[in-house]
Design brief:
Helices cover 39% and strands 12% of the residues. It is of the alpha/beta class. α5 links the parallel β2 and β3. The two termini are 36 Å apart.
């Protein structure tokens, strides 16, 4: 079963877990799901496959990554989120004779990595798989634990995925409500449309609260359940309209992003669904563990996150917290700062140096000029640590 790892996160939400198991049963065989055929709407208008001739991705915090990784000639670097290849290309062009292991769970990204490998013979090794599959992939390539010099992990959804309407990640572009980062690698993997149209109201509200930190989760979940009784919700802008319909028109764009620009009221809903469908928090934890295993002593790890759930997980991991049972941890903002949590953090101080030494005490954020050039990187946070 593809989503056994979700059991750890859903122990505190038994109703949601029961609904999720029911969802998987209903989608067996895969043809019963909504993903393989979301409708007959013509996708040819403005939707096309990725073209390697046009810019795919502006790498976030590129200057900082190249600085803090401290890459030396002929070293081995692991890019755990190849995406559009922006960071890898810069590494190849900046550091001679460096070999890059290019990991990504998205087949589209790996096809780009394979093309780049042809341009840089022997210097790029594409790896198709999730963070949780990295140990096995490295073993298949005869790369032993503790042999990698530097690791970059750029978490979250890539710009390439956001720009492809047919992938269903963007609420500003109409497309099938998919959101699967693995593409069609796992046909029986539920997509966002399956989640929205199958889980009950309580389970949906739990997802929006846990992964979107959405204050109005119950109101949005109720609106989704009411709307799907009329017609299945299978398109991105259809879902955005349903969420917007739960609020007065005056506040649909009342929320502001970090640049004080209007943000659609459904933004957090889309984030929550994406994280849940792709099991992103468990995968991020698995990736951090794999990076720790792969790095040699003195090797550097750079992790870029884009929202608070990711950043808190990374911060606690680098501090030596035991995150093997993620359900015991509350990553929501309103759970921070309690006396109990502070005592636990104090007791774990002794574990700080067990595996990692922080290069910067505080998180590194993008420069203002970089944010103006690439607004999508406005919420990026970079944490750097050296493997002990």
């Amino acid at each position: 079963m593809l989503f056994n790892s979700n059991l750890r996160l859903w122990k505190t939400h038994p109703a949601a877990w029961a609904a999720w198991r029911s969802l998987l049963l209903r989608l067996n065989p895969p043809a019963a799901g909504l993903c393989p055929g979301l409708g007959s709407r013509d996708m040819s208008d403005g939707l096309s496959s990725v073209s390697v001739e046009r810019p795919l991705h502006t790498p976030v915090m590129l200057k900082e990554v190249l600085h803090y990784l401290e890459i030396q000639p002929a070293q081995v670097v692991l890019d755990m989120t190849f995406g559009g290849g922006g960071h890898t290309k810069a590494i190849l062009n900046t550091f001679p004779e460096v070999t890059v292991l290019a990991l990504d769970r998205d087949p589209t990204a790996i096809s780009l990595a394979q093309q780049l490998a042809k341009e840089h013979s022997g210097r790029v090794k594409p790896l198709l798989g999730r963070f949780s599959e990295l140990d096995a992939l490295l073993c298949d390539m005869n790369i032993k634990p503790g042999s990698v010099d530097a690791v970059l992990l750029d978490a979250g959804c890539s710009s390439m995925q956001m720009d492809q309407a047919e992938r269903g990640f963007s609420l500003s572009k109409d497309g099938p409500l998919d959101m699967r980062m693995d593409g069609d690698r796992y046909p029986d993997m539920p997509c966002a449309a399956d989640v929205v149209n199958t889980l009950d109201q309580q389970a949906l509200a739990s997802i929006l609260t846990a992964y979107g930190e959405e204050r109005h989760a119950r109101k949005i979940a109720s609106a989704i359940v009411e709307a799907r009784r009329v017609n299945p919700i299978t398109w991105t802008q259809q879902l955005a309209s349903v969420v917007a319909g739960a609020f007065p028109a005056a506040i649909i764009y009342a929320r502001k992003d970090r640049l004080q620009r209007p943000a659609h009221v459904a933004t957090k809903t889309f984030q929550a669904l994406r994280i849940f469908v792709n099991d992103e928090l468990n995968e991020l934890h698995a990736g951090l563990c794999a990076a720790r295993s792969a790095l040699k002593p003195g090797g550097r790890l750079c992790v870029i996150t884009f929202h608070s759930l990711e950043d808190r997980l990374v911060k606690r991991f680098l501090r030596g917290h035991d995150l093997s049972n993620l359900d015991q941890y509350h990553f929501s903002q309103n759970k921070q700062g309690s006396r109990k949590d502070k005592l636990l953090d104090k007791n774990r101080e002794c574990n700080k140096s067990a595996h990692w030494f922080p290069v910067q005490r505080k998180v590194v954020t993008p420069e203002k000029d970089a944010v103006r050039e690439n607004p999508r990187g406005r919420s990026a946070k970079l944490r750097i640590a050296v493997r002990q």
